[in-house]
Amino acid sequence: MNHVLIEVKSKTYKVYIDGGLRSKIGEMMESVLTSPISSVLIITDSSVAPLYLDDIVGSFHEKLPIYTTVIKSGEASKSFEVYEQVMTKALESRLDRKSVIVALGGGVVGDLAGFVASTYMRGIRFVQVPTTLLAHDSSVGGKVAINHPLGKNMVGSFHQPEAVFYDTEALYSLPEQEWRSGFAEVIKHGFIRNNSFLNWLQAEVTSFEELPLELVNQMLEKSLAVKADIVAEDELESGVRAYLNFGHTLGHAIEAESGYGVVTHGEAVAIGMIFALKLSEKIFEIDLDVKKYEAWFKRLGYKTRISNKLNVSRLVTKMQNDKKAESGTIRMVLLREIEEALLVEVPPNIIEQLLVEQMEVENNG
Ligand SMILES: NC(=O)c1ccc[n+]([C@@H]2O[C@H](COP(=O)([O-])OP(=O)(O)OC[C@H]3O[C@@H](n4cnc5c(N)ncnc54)[C@H](O)[C@@H]3O)[C@@H](O)[C@H]2O)c1
Ligand SMILES: O=C(O)C(=O)C[C@@H](O)[C@H](O)[C@H](O)COP(=O)(O)O
Ligand SMILES: [Zn+2]
């Protein structure tokens, strides 16, 4: 079975990738996890549960006490309220320090369940079972969090999974909008670290209709390789890991300002990446051929401009509250050239001016 090795300072684990893997997860957990498991809590959401929960439960063959909890699907579930509900379920199920949490779903379930695992009894083990394209990114690297109305992922920690079980067959029940959202993080990995991968993506992916499984597997391995390299170098984001935030300073501000769940994470990041490319051109006085990327994004159905329903100064304030900011300055990931990322402090007035220029106008998506 294909796997990608993740070697961060605190842990080494594997991302297993295979079509149909979900029916083997129970057995695999018992062999991959190094110490015994007392019980399992599977956390999933209301869209994923009817599709895949029975398969995962069945894969344990009744050898362990299995508890399940189903949260409402969508970004709004990365909240204090749902966090408390899931914690209550964990306590009522009497999870102990040998229990394991299984995060079955996309990035919302992964981030929330991972944060529950990192804080329940000060931290128990968890595994990721990603079911979205986007979750190739969110299931790896150990960032787990919930949102605060004042900012995305503001309450969280670093807590690495024991393993990631990626059943790529499960991606084929995703609606087109979720392929688009996840693909933004794939593109991001190309922009920050791998230009030839980015060129390959432009040649191979011209729509999200029926992407062949072989292509998807290839794409995931290349994309995961970038993430694996970066988190291996810098697990806790004291340096290069910040490059994984390319497109996110504005993207997160758009998500929070629009209301969590109104714009998907990847679609907001796509707008943020085009903005960061244009800002890079301006600040470094270079030509990154943004028009070419913007045209590709549009052909794939992304919006590249900022909704004119959003307020520019509120977006700037959110960007000043970003985790990369220091003393209220805005620090953004820019590109000096493709695959050469760096973290740059940008004066708010320059950001504000470009935001105004990048607002959508009627019939200009
Ligand atoms: N921790 C990290 O490093 C990291 C990285 C990137 C993104 N994120 C976070 O991930 C979240 C976004 O994740 P996401 O895009 O996976 O969103 P999501 O978890 O909300 O999933 C998207 C939608 O698809 C549904 N779904 C999931 N799997 C499905 C399947 N196989 N078939 C049909 N429907 C399915 C979900 O119910 C949901 O409605 C954001 O909160 C973002 O901040 C975290
Ligand atoms: O793994 C990382 O590091 C990332 O930044 C990946 C991002 O795609 C992801 O959205 C992450 O959750 C953003 O992190 P945050 O620290 O800005 O909340
Ligand atoms: Zn992201």
From TrEMBL:
InterPro entries: Dehydroquinate_synthase, DHQ_synth_AroB, DHQ_synth_fam, DHQS/DOIS_N, DHQS_C. It is found in: Cytoplasm. Residues 182-325 form the 3-dehydroquinate synthase C-terminal domain. Its main location: cytoplasm. This is 3-dehydroquinate synthase. Residues 69-180 form the 3-dehydroquinate synthase N-terminal domain. Pfam families: DHQ_synthase (PF01761), DHQS_C (PF24621). The keyword Lyase applies. One of its GO terms (molecular function) is metal ion binding. The keyword Mitochondrion does not apply. Pathway: Metabolic intermediate biosynthesis; chorismate biosynthesis; chorismate from D-erythrose 4-phosphate and phosphoenolpyruvate: step 2/7. GO terms for cellular component: cytoplasm. Zn(2+) binds at residues 185, 248, 265. The gene is aroB. Belongs to the sugar phosphate cyclases superfamily. Dehydroquinate synthase family. Catalyzes the conversion of 3-deoxy-D-arabino-heptulosonate 7-phosphate (DAHP) to dehydroquinate (DHQ). Its EC number is 4.2.3.4. It catalyses: 7-phospho-2-dehydro-3-deoxy-D-arabino-heptonate = 3-dehydroquinate + phosphate. It comes from the Bacteria. NAD(+) binds at residues 73-78, 107-111, 131-132, 143, 152.
